[in-house]
Design a protein that fits this description.
With 722 residues, this protein is α+β, with helices and mostly antiparallel strands. Among the domains are: 255-353, PDZ domain (Pdz3 Domain); 356-714, 2-enoyl-CoA Hydratase, Chain A, domain 1, CATH 3.90.226. It is an enzyme of class 3 (hydrolase).
Length: 722
């Protein structure tokens, strides 16, 4: 086992918010077909296999020896792992009872030895009990639907039970579920859904979810067991089963060999959610959003397999395949209903770039100091890079830095004078790409971030392999969901005095993970089954000014209103985050001291928004969203909820009226609850809203462009060239 290879692997400033994958394994609740809807969920208890044991032993060894903050494998950790074995499955404490948990207490003092020895029996017993209990809970939920509910009674449904204990008895658990089901029923009733339709919708939903639980397999159980240990060490250490590892690779590379479509679950069907432009599905002109997949066949003559009631991941596995090979689909065309006549479509698989998830650019006209200016706004969803293609020396591999370079070159030719980088909701990605993108603005071979290893060694990551493509004003937008690689780029722009950072405080993820296949640590002359992969924290990163972004994140130079409760969301909200620390600053040369310029820009910004109806509306909507997000419980009394809904409806209509008068686009981010789960709503409406968000800039992006426009004159005497 060559463990030294760990530190030669590609480092990843791992995404905090997992991106979608394609064929996108954005897995919703799996559903079932009509024929099986009313069958009881029968299943055998899961049994573990040798490869699960091997994956467990290897994971425990790696985490014990190479975790950045080396925590002792002691009684304190054992207690935390034991707690996570239940909490990770039942975060809201509604499935297990206190008695269930106490029945496993005798194993708590031995938990870590089970990981070292690859003994998964306890983990599988807990997972099997979880399956049985959850099936029982859903069976109980289904039984309630025909009994009716007393909506005149004054009682509350608690949304967040994190600080509460598990129910003592099954009767207590059932009462929690009664309130949950009553709330689900009431939500649909408030949306004016017919009572019979409510019962049918909820019955189908619960049976689908129950049967999904029943089909959970040993691979999922092993993944859960290993991750109870990983989560106890730090929030970003994760074991990926073989299936999960493949999906992670797609999410970071934005490429996959398949048909070029994004799938979701729609009741018992796999449904086409999006068709990727330029991909095989788009080229066929026979596959459309909303189509339902009922069968998949391999090659020109292979027999069709009925995939109704399949897990989304399993459908995806059948559709993905080797480049150049043929896959055939049986599809019920969108809009024809579940009784529509299926059609057969033949597709030749290709390597597909997920353009819909890549960076995108828009140039707008702004005015500042009586002059018109062109400002380029680049929206960056993630720091993507096709690692395998890069290692294979493919010339045109997918990467963020390549895409941004293309945008900047177009800007230079078209007279763009300033750039806005929108990093909102960008959870991170490739550390290599964070350094390269920074280099496009600060120059080649400049120090971007300092990285501290477990042994105390400090490595400085530089912007290699690029040149400075942009020497004009830069504004970076951040928010609470900007994390990791986003924080590296924002901090580099800020510390070098290269641009201005606007928005709200970032997530505060200042750690670096590595992602490795477990078989890399085994003898190369022996063939092993795929054991999955592990991502673990091996380093901590620091800004060039010496400060870590861990917990504290990056603060904006100009603050915008936020709708997020920072105490509930962010690195600091985790149970066991690494602490904030500081290093000696690196030797680097800032372009300028922008304090005076920032003060002027902030004054201009405040003057502008003081008379901006759009900005005032943003502040009011954000304050309203924050208030809604902090709610912990809901009344289950019909009249009380009707009154609350009427008040909310009036507020939303007031916002919409004001938005219309201002000429602002309604992105439908704030609307009345329709009571539907994901995959049950109107796909056409969802896609139209997504399209509007991509094609139009919101008030935050536009005001950031105004600040960039102001920066042209305010910093005109400064030299941003290297």
């Amino acid at each position: 086992m060559n463990l030294n290879r760990v530190f030669k692997s590609t480092l990843i400033a791992i995404s905090l918010i997992s991106g979608s994958v394609s064929l996108n394994a954005v897995t919703n609740d799996a559903q079932t077909n009509e024929a099986s809807l009313y069958k009881p969920a029968k299943f055998k208890d899961l049994e573990f296999k040798d490869n699960y044991a091997r994956a467990t032993v290897l994971s425990a060894l790696i985490l014990n020896r190479f975790q950045f903050e080396k925590k002792p494998f002691d009684d304190k950790l054992q207690s935390l792992v034991f707690e996570n074995l239940f909490k990770s499955l039942d975060v809201n404490k509604m499935i297990f009872t206190k008695e269930d948990i106490n029945s496993f207490k005798k194993y708590e003092s031995k938990i870590l030895s089970y990981y070292r020895k690859g003994q998964l029996q306890i983990g599988f017993e807990i997972f099997n009990l979880y399956k049985h209990r959850l099936v029982e809970r859903y069976d109980y939920a289904i039984s309630l639907l025909d009994k009716g509910f007393d909506f005149k009674k004054n009682e509350e449904f608690v949304l967040d039970r994190d600080e509460l204990d598990w129910p003592l008895t099954h009767q207590e658990a059932n009462d929690l579920w009664r309130k949950r089901i009553k709330n689900d029923f009431l939500r649909l009733k408030l949306a004016s859904v017919d009572e019979d339709k409510i019962k049918n919708t909820l019955r189908k939903r619960y049976i689908n979810r129950r049967n999904t639980v029943a089909r959970m397999d040993g691979e999922q159980a092993a993944e859960y067991f290993i991750n109870a240990l990983g989560d106890s060490l730090d929030p970003h250490t994760t074991y990926y089963s073989p299936s999960s590892a493949k999906n992670f690779d797609v999410s970071i590379s934005l490429s996959v060999e398949g048909i070029g479509a994004v799938l979701q679950k729609h009741f018992e069907y796999g449904q086409i959610r999006e068709v990727v432009a330029g991909g095989p599905a788009a080229k066929s002109k026979q596959i459309n959003p909303g189509d339902l997949i009922v069968g998949v066949a391999q090659g020109e003559t292979g027999q069709f397999e009925d995939v109704i009631d399949w897990e989304l991941d399993d459908i995806v596995k059948k559709i993905r395949g080797k480049r150049g090979s043929v896959v055939r689909l049986q599809l019920i065309p969108a809009g024809t209903g579940m009784d529509g006549k299926p059609k057969e479509v033949k597709i030749v698989r290709e390597k597909v770039s997920m353009e819909e998830q890549a960076a995108r650019s828009k140039v707008i006209e702004t005015k500042s100091d009586g002059k018109s200016h062109k400002v380029g706004v680049i929206t960056i969803p993630s720091f993507y890079e096709d690692f395998d293609a890069r290692k294979a020396l493919e010339k045109n591999y997918n990467s963020l830095s390549k895409d941004i370079t293309k945008f900047l070159n177009k800007y230079k030719k078209s007279g763009v004078e300033a750039v806005v980088l929108d990093l909102r909701n960008n959870g991170g990605g490739s550390l290599n790409e964070a350094a390269k993108v920074s280099g496009l603005f600060i120059g080649n071979y400049e120090k971007v971030v300092q990285v501290s290893s477990q042994n105390g060694d400090i490595n400085v990551v530089q912007s290699r392999g690029v040149k400075q493509e942009w020497d004009k004003p830069v504004v970076v937008i951040i928010n609470r969901f900007s994390a990791s690689a986003s924080e590296i780029l924002a901090a580099a722009i800020k510390d070098y005095g290269r641009g201005v950072v606007v928005g709200s405080q970032t997530w505060g993820k200042g750690t670096v993970q590595t992602f490795r296949d477990l078989t890399d640590f085994l003898q190369k002359d022996v063939e092993y089954k795929d054991l999955g992969a592990i991502k673990w924290t091996i380093q901590k990163f620091f800004r060039v000014n010496g400060s870590s972004t861990q917990l504290k994140g990056v603060e904006p130079d100009i603050e915008f209103p936020s709708s997020v409760d920072n105490e509930k969301l962010g690195e600091s909200s985790y149970d066991n985050p690494l602490p904030w620390t500081i290093l000696r600053p690196a030797e680097y040369k800032p372009f300028a001291d922008l304090k005076g310029s920032i003060a002027k820009l902030n004054t201009l910004h405040k003057d502008r928004i003081a008379n901006s109806g759009s900005w005032n509306l943003l502040k009011k909507e954000n304050a309203y969203r924050l208030k809604l997000s902090q709610r912990k419980s809901y009344s289950l009394n019909y009249e009380t909820r009707v009154k609350e809904r009427e008040e909310m409806d009036a507020q939303i209509k007031a916002f919409d009226k004001e938005r219309k008068e201002l000429g602002e686009i309604n992105f439908n981010d704030l609307k009345l609850d329709d009571g539907l789960a994901r995959g049950e709503g109107d796909l056409k409406e969802e896609l139209e809203n997504e399209k509007k968000r991509k094609e139009n800039l919101d008030v935050v992006a536009r005001e950031s462009a105004n600040i960039a426009s102001d920066m042209i004159s305010v910093t005109s005497g400064l030299n941003f060239s290297r």
